[in-house]
Specification:
Helices cover about 80% and strands about 0% of the residues. With about 80 residues, it is mainly α. Helix 2 packs across helix 3.
Length: about 80
């Protein structure tokens, strides 16, 4: 959606569902949007929150520290 407000509400609903797959999709979408244009403050906060969720999942799954998990996520979205 081009309307950031509607996209934000839809993304919040997906996060509330508890699905890590949905969180990953939102993270990827917002990361790509941020690279191509300026995103709203709310979406930037949402991007940060989704990254934190995924980072904690990656830390547990791969048994690595927070910085390595963050770097791994950044590499995945390039």
């Amino acid at each position: 959606n081009a309307n950031w407000n509607k996209r934000y509400r839809e993304n919040m609903d997906k996060i509330k569902s508890g699905s890590v797959v949905e969180v990953a999709k939102i993270f990827k979408l917002l990361t790509l949007l941020e690279r191509n244009k300026k995103i709203s403050v709310g979406e930037r906060r949402l991007l940060h929150n989704t990254k934190q969720i995924l980072q904690s999942e990656v830390m547990l799954i791969r048994d690595i520290d927070a910085q390595k998990a963050s770097n791994w996520l950044d590499e995945c979205c390039q």
